[in-house]
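Quick one, T. Sequence first:
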Amino acid sequence: MQDALDKLPTDRCINLGADNWLRPDKLDRLLSRPDDIVSYDICITGEKVTAGAFASRVGAVRFPSGYYVWEFKKRDINQSNYIHGSSMFSTAFAKSFGCPESGRGNFLKEEDWAMWRSMLKAGATQFHIKEPMSYYRRHRENFNP
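Structure tokens:
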């Protein structure tokens, strides 16, 4: 993650994986926030059985439309990562101290969490949009029960 951070030429970054897509009608809303970290809820899609099993594991809520929405509720960042890896962040703020290793076991799994903890500890502002701004597709090939 540090290598990517060093190469970012933009003011803001959203790390979207191959199974994520941002709603194009929401980008302006994210960019309008002046906060150093902007998080949001995520809509879980994919095969019904897989999406449902994952939704159950993360405590997602099923909406009347049939979609599951993964709601991220603020809590102690040192105990639980309530800011997901696809949240938007200020690259300048993140670059000011770098991307630390998590120190809690699996570095690759938790490096975004380590970055959020460090940014907040350094005084970053954070805002959460309580609305699904992106879709996360779960499928059998990337599901570990």
